[in-house]
Amino acid sequence: MKKTGFLVLWLLFSLVTSLECANKSPKGRTVTVLSIDGGGIRGIIPGTILAFLESKLQELDGPNARIAKYFDVISGTSTGGIITAMLTAPDKDNQPLFAAKDINNFYFENGPKIFTQHSASAAGPMYDGKYLRMIIKELLGNITMNQTLTDVVIPTFDIKLLQPIMFTTSDAKAKSSKNALLADVCVATSAAPTGFPAHYFETKDEDGKTHSFNLIDGGVAATNPTQVAITLIFNEILKGNFKLVDIKPMDTTKILVVSLGAGKAKFEEKYNASMVSQWSPINWIFDKSGTPLIDVYSAASTDMVDIQVTSLFQALGAEKNYLRIQDDNLIGNTTSGDIATTTNMEALAKIGNKLLEKSVARVNIDTGAFEPVLGEGTNSEVLIHFAKLLSNERKIRLAN
């Protein structure tokens, strides 16, 4: 009898212990992040790289493998926001609406129409934006932010409030006022100043109160949205809302980040202190060598993020967990965000393919230049390695 009682107690203890272990054990080991820069028609560059990454995932997990199934957060600004929506919008079967290989098809088919619809008013933006709004609405329909297949974050900027507005899946699920149509968010984040009209739309909160948004391109705040995505994750961890992986705030050793640039002009030391000290306000806006003020803000928005993220990962000995793929040597028409000729789009696709074969590079924190890293292989080799890590992480979570 005593033996029977002891056996029952032992079984109960074992059951409770196993349940506690099950509750404490994380569902996965690594938090996964994908970030896509803004850049207009240059979105063909990250589109090319994403098609490569998804093809490697398909080699491992079958033809139905899709980017959205492997990343906890996908962030995108401007054209990167459109790509983010294409990757994460659900179809009627709750599967990704588009494959990564569809991204460049979108640009080749629609780019020339988006960038030839000129504004009728000489005082207005360069493009009237009618085709852009039409095609995005046609693609995304009435899909709302809370329906995306993984968490997304898409930056915009409210020109009335003069502050950034971040649209995220988590906010959309928590607050009706942030549960905008995905199409509206895409048009807003793509409304580049001087290029397209600002985008206005409204939402309603739980009490029926109307919330108004007067939005322009998120690139004025975060052309490179990598840090926005990482901050979102850390905030969710601090709030106790992040349940996918057992991770502490700021622990980059358990975060895997793929950050894709859309290319930028070849680095040239065009300006110096002596030169700009003589400039009038008009020279800052338009000079014979370019558009200095726009160049400064664009470079600062993109490079500051890369420098800070690189510093964070290096400080914690996790620099190999952060892969930034960017070409900072664009010349001629490829530097433009709105030259959508077949010739230029094909050139951008070639740049994307060449980037795959280039050595992994990291930003030099002192100069801002990208420098090859010896011994870490090419971007394609690291992406193949990342694909294996992403595949294994997904299998661990499915098993749990």
UniProtKB/TrEMBL annotation:
Keyword Lipid metabolism: yes
Motif (GXGXXG): 38-43
Motif DGA/G, chain ranges: 217-219
Domain PNPLA, residue spans: 34-230
Active site per database record: S78 (nucleophile), D217 (proton acceptor)
Keywords from the UniProt entry: Hydrolase, Lipid degradation, Lipid metabolism, Plant defense, Signal
BP term (GO), one: defense response
Gene3D superfamilies: Cytosolic phospholipase A2 catalytic domain (3.40.1090.10)
Signal peptide: 1-21
Listed EC numbers: 3.1.1.-
Listed Pfam families: Patatin
Molecular function GO labels: monoacylglycerol lipase activity; phospholipase activity
Entry annotated with the keyword Signal: yes
Motif (GXSXG): 76-80
Enzyme class: hydrolase
Entry comment, domain topic: The nitrogen atoms of the two glycine residues in the GGXR motif define the oxyanion hole, and stabilize the oxyanion that forms during the nucleophilic attack by the catalytic serine during substrate cleavage.
Function: Lipolytic acyl hydrolase (LAH).
Family: Belongs to the patatin family.
Full protein name: Patatin
Taxon lineage: Eukaryota, Viridiplantae, Streptophyta, Embryophyta, Tracheophyta
